[in-house]
Amino acid sequence: MKKLLNTLYVTTEGAALRKDGENLVAEVEGAERARVPFHMLGSVVAFGPVLVSPALMGACAANGISLVLLDRVGRFQARVEGPVAGNVLLRRAQYAASEAPDDIVRSLVMGKVANQRSVLLRHLRDHGEGDGQEPAGAISAVCERLARILQRLAAGLTGLDHLRGAEGEAAQLYFSVFGHLVRSPDPEIRFLGRSRRPPLDPVNAVLSFLYTLLTHDCRSAAESVGLDPAVGFLHRDRPGRPSLALDLMEELRPVLADRLALSLLNRRQLRARDFETRDGGGVLLTEEGRRTVLTAWQERKREERLHPFLDEKAPLGLVPYLQAQFLSRHLRGDLDAYPPWFWK
User: Fold this and answer.
1) Which of these, 192, 327, 174, lies nearest to 253 by C-alpha position?
2) Structural domain boundaries, residue 6
């Protein structure tokens, strides 16, 4: 359990939440683990099987505290709230901002490009010239070009097409050298360039699976604060597409997904036997491979990192929910700008 900003996140399965006077009390196996006054809470987010007493639900509704229920892997299930929650005003602000989203898009793209560059720089620090076969010079050159893109963004690059162009240019540069970061001993596990539907090699199969998991988390995060996950800023609206969830995941996927994929492959937790090739050339994870990735994903989300804006440590799994809160606060006018999450 962890309280960040004005939200209590309950991630312990089997925890019980109850009302005691004007306080929320969280218990695990009958022992009190947390006590938070209602006046200090804006929302409660519960992951997995968590018991919530009827008295607490009524108190949360009466005090304007939203109660968000997610399943074990973070998929949105329900939100319980009282009659006055302000979500209509928040969504109106979101829709209005989507008509002129340059500032938000610039922040999202800066976060993504900076984190892509950090992934490459971390590889250079960890492996350097490697065994002489690794083109460290090519990776360094891409890092320099990404730094120039960041300079353009920081200088106030405007225009949605230009911002999307900068994001696309950075992605092309990043994935042009991503294959050099894969150090699996299996010759079948190679990165042949980004491919999506279907993924055409094992590396893309892992990336696509992790991106799907991250999209679910970002969609749940958007819904947990009352945002409309279908209306984004960087991604264009399209029926059935969670554009805002895709926006939120952009700055997070280099660290949460790409780094995890590299770790699983380079540490030989995933081998060639964990993939299968379907008719048409698509490559997918086997059932055992998916279990390996899911286990590592849950472990990864428990790791804590210092949040640069909060200046407080938070589990990586809660970062999408924090960023959704920051976005909602910016849309409400409480923050001058949306603060990206930079990985260091």
Assistant:
1) 174
2) 2-85
Give me the residues paired with residue 32 across strands.
27
pLDDT tens string 61-71:
888 888 888 87
The CA-atom distances, in angstroms, between 298 and each of 73, 130, 279 are 8, 30, 31
The CA distance from 246 to 219, in Å, is 8
Determine the Cα–Cα distance for residues 192 and 86; give it in Å rounded to an integer. Answer: 47
Write out the DSSP string of 121-138.
Answer: HHHHHHHTTTTTTS-HHH
Cβ atoms of 258 and 119 within 8 Å: the answer is yes
340 within a domain of the structure (yes/no) = no
CATH number at residue 16: 3.100.10.20
The predicted model scores a pTM of 0.77
Residues in the chain: 344
| Residue 147 to residue 15: CA distance in whole angstroms | 45
Query: What pLDDT, in 10s, does the model give residues 278-295?
Result: 877 888 888 888 888 888
